[in-house]
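Notes to self, NCS2 family permease:
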Amino acid sequence: MEKMFKLKAHGTTVRTEVIAGITTFLAMAYILAVNPGMLSQTGMPIKGVFTATALSAGIATLVMAFLANLPVALAPGMGLNAFFTFTVVMGMGYSWQLALTAVFIEGVVFIVLSFFNVREKIIDAIPNGLKKAISVGIGLFIALIGLTNAGIVSSQTGTIIGFADLNGAPLVAVIGLAVTCILYCCKVPGSILLGIIITTVIGVPFGVTKIPQNFSPVSLPASPIFCKFEFSQILTVKFFTVFFTFFFVDVFDTIGTLVGVTTEAGLAKNGKIPHVKEALLSDAIGTVAGAMLGTSTVTSFVESTSGVAAGGRTGLTSAVTGILFFLALFLSPLFLLVPSAATAPALIIVGFFMLRCVVDINFADPTEGIPAFICIITMPFAYSVAEGIVWGLVSYVILKVVTGKAKSVTIVGWILFFIFILRWVLK
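result:
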């Protein structure tokens, strides 16, 4: 362990790393309940998605452990799974097979760019304000999905959208949200997962959680959805928008998480991420593996900071987390028992996490603040992450040009601007 992970050099021990790995798993295990429930709405088999979720998380996290030696865990990302389900499949009308194809190609491109260090140019092409706005917009989008899935808000209220009657599933979800918020504010480890468990139990007397007869919490894992790709429409402009959004959100989600986790752990030097090439490569490998197994984009999880707070400093933390994801494969009946009313609080609280960076947006400069605002409101109101990015970037370029600040737009930014305009023209 010492030779592989350099524990002494990082001022840690095997015991500390193991505890940190367990803590990280508890903090992000909610994805095993949320991701299958969300992707199954596209028609994908829920048990197969569960297997793909656990396997891809385990594989990607172990690659991170041994390749980058960082205490960062990975799994199918929140926001990206919502984009996959509600925008690409339900909104654009694409099949889930084509959506998986976009994820697969994005992962392959990410691997190539990780080798040639091209990612910085793409990152620099997007203004800092829009980077923050995208996170905020996705947070609102995810929260709205949670509120809608639980039936807390509905369009059947006589208004465009409003609060539904709080009984049954909506009441259980509200109670669960209160429990989750209390656990989180009290800094209870694994508060989101504990909130899901408690809400699921609360749902039993309400008839919301349905326990089948002869229920067993342990079973052999179902077969994953292996290599179900569709390449017929990959040369269209519309497909490029889908691919670009998957790629773009994955890049910035990963970079942001890596910066946050390594800084929290005291591993970053002068703002630079250690082993960043290997870390990004781990993310890309996880995405390719996830697409082949049948799940949306795999990315680094900010919940890794919980393991860092418990003392995790090396890849051994990630190795423990990855192994626990593999063991979870045999507990699919437990995770799939969770109703949408119990996963809704997790979606809403994750929305809160993503909303926090709104304070970093420069609203004092209207050429920065207005595009960020447009990006933020478009995602939940248009029910589309992609449209938020498109409208945000297009409005940014236009406002910079008309105010004489065109130099603020990078070459890559101009290329993306014309691609998005072309997308509207060819609709």
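- The chain has 19 helices and four strands.
- The chain has a mean pLDDT of 87.
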